[in-house]
Amino acid sequence: xxxxxxxxxSVLLGFLIVVVLKPxxxxxxxxxxxxxxxxxxxxxxxxxLPEVYHNNDKSIxxxxxxxxxxxxxxxxxSKGAEHGHVHLxxxxxxxPWLLFISLCIHSVLEGIPIEAHHNLVxxxxxxxxxxxxxxxxxxxxxxxxxxxxAFFLIMFACMTPFGVILSSNFDIIKSFYYEISAIVIGIxxxxxxxxxxxxxxxxxxxxxxxxTVVIAITIAYFx
Length: 223
Fold this sequence. Notes:
Elements: H1 2-21, H2 26-52, H3 59-78, H4 97-111, H5 120-141, H6 146-169, H7 171-175, H8 177-198, H9 207-221
Helix pairs in contact: 1-5, 1-6, 2-5, 2-8, 2-9, 3-4, 3-8, 4-6
């Protein structure tokens, strides 16, 4: 049940943070993104990646690369919202269907391995929180109606749990668990490393960011 509820709570919390606290410090958001990227990458490397290589099947590497390429394609439509960017016109009242569909595909896929790999849900919710904050900030400042904003955020919150439900109830998904997991690993590797690189302003050394990343890695290692 937590695997279904926690991703929803993460998106709701991100929305409430924007509405109640109205965060204005971009630096704090970048640190949160850096933490989420390091944490997601660590969970993937420490726990998730070794699991799919249990039989030393070289084809698993192919599916990981497919996941990386798939995420690159999705980001062409989402404009990088998965790692902290929303490049859309705030003055438009047109619903951003391409952003919505790409985020839904991403979210459903990341939910599929969670049921069989419970620590992964913590990586997902830490990843979703800053994304929800960024999306909520953008939409509340846009000219989209409240109904459209609510629809987008509710569906975004429900897509990862939908992936969890699919993996629990459809044997065909279970039979391709390792291949799908490898694709998700590729997606996570691309997103997390992109977050870490992009959160480093002008490629300068940042002690605060370094400490944040080390804390995220340490927490993930001891989970």
